[in-house]
RNA sequence: GGGGCCGUAGCUCAACUGGUUAGAGCAUCGGACUGUCGAUCCGAAGGUUGCGGGUUCGAGCCCCGUCGGCCUCGCCA
């Protein structure tokens, strides 16, 4: 007789001692089987809810037991039986461990081929293989947890923003290519041969248009696409919690965003996050941490010791200072215990990101006096030792690492070192959530390569009102009404107050070396709209993948994306991107260039 | 595009300084077993060492190239 698998009485995670005596129908996957020979077979049955042990006894239910003997991992079955006590044999590892189901009847709904890797909580398979068989990987407990965390995060964000009067409005996926910023993914048009849509890097311009349309509070869970190289926290397609508000200034945006994050943290992991968040000026972040997304869970600030360095004979310091650079250092408490091998390893690594080397010295005590040892210790003489130690707030047993050069390079290298040391030496306290706003960023940055000013955020960002007069005369000093939200060293999102005046918008474009005509060509729709009564507005976009990742306690967003791509933007599951039929290309009026054709032909030969 | 780590059985890994027939655990298959829960015990089967070249009497190991994965710098308004 067939078991009504469409009438499951509960899932595999819910039965408890209080259910003893009930007849239940369960369905799911065979997680494991233990065949005890003569009379007993145990099947661990798994579904989204959890695992329930099913007991088959040949004495009472010979038919079911016979079938149970043939079951293998990942077979899909439905069972009917009675919830019974496990007596002495409770399994404390399982929430359902007090009970088991004595099976009277079992149906095999589908057999499974032997899985290429074990579907278990602990990961054994390589990520490559897991991606190829993602549907199996997603059966694993931790993966289900990550996906569910993401769902809860989405739900909590929507809940919050809906309750605050935000309207959820969709924007196009097929849109116009803008050569600025990241590379676009292009979509060829059949109806307009030779023309292309682009997938949106973000709904930026559309949300601004919505403000001009009068939908003064907009939000969207928006898919965004950028054809750039990937990282652990970057995918070619990712999801933003996108929002925009009209008639607001910086304060209003920060307020609603931090409350939304507090709401999400409460709902998803039941953590109370105090608001308002700490704020730090961009300059301060760069000065003390060498990055615009500092991790405040630990110390090791970057300290400028240029004054002391100037008094030394160390060539590296002298050359850097002469070239207008800086000398900075960080102090690792208790780091003097590091071996030569360890510090040599760090040196090699920091050279790998472009540093010339890694000057260092250890702080020790000799005859009641604080002294420096090893490395570049000998260059500090007389009172410079005391000065350095005092500046660095160092004590015997510590180690000091130095970096000399341009401000940008010193920041890059010491920031890398600070993070690396904190991670490797486990200096990061668990369970800490250090939210931080980075504000007052510069609006523009000088680009050595092109010899032009470029925007740091995007060209629609409003400068500080009081900086508008110096827009042309001193662009580097202009601050932007721009803000980044940072959590534990991860950039969660960024936003700005936008320019709503057409004149100002043209002024900015001109400043960036974009002519009025060029601007009109690229951003017709926005510039036109700005003529028709654009309200002051601003907003922000949050990275949903990163937020879910942090909430789930993971270190890559791939773990909270059901079907992610590899570092080369390849999907091993569907094996895309892939070639297409010549017919499809013909229809689009696309011909591959001869070089690509030749490479493809060569590959086929092999 | 640059740097680093990696690629050996279905999976995770081992294999000394280049040296016999490339091993182990898990999974698979067969058998045994009255309470297991990462079951246990006995047995079997399982290999183009990513791919292509080179050096060598001899290559999993050395060299060159190439493909793929991960981390990272550049890049990502």
Primary descriptors:
BirA Bifunctional Protein, domain 2, five-stranded mixed β-barrel, Gyrase A, domain 2, 606 residues, RNA-binding, alpha+beta, globular, OB fold (Dihydrolipoamide Acetyltransferase, E2P), eight-stranded mixed beta sheet, 3 domains, 17 helices
Task: Please explain how this structure is put together.
The protein has three domains: 106 residues, Beta Barrel (OB fold (Dihydrolipoamide Acetyltransferase, E2P)); 263 residues, BirA Bifunctional Protein, domain 2 (2-Layer Sandwich), CATH 3.30.930.10; 131 residues, Gyrase A, domain 2. It is globular, with a radius of gyration of 30 Å. A hairpin with a 7-residue loop joins strand 7 and strand 8. The protein has 606 residues and is α+β, with helices and mostly antiparallel strands. The mean pLDDT is 94. It has an eight-stranded mixed β-sheet, with helices on both faces. A five-stranded mixed beta barrel has the order 1-2-3-5-4. A five-stranded antiparallel β-sheet has the order 12-13-16-14-15. It is built from 17 helices and 22 strands. The structure holds one RNA strand of 77 nucleotides.
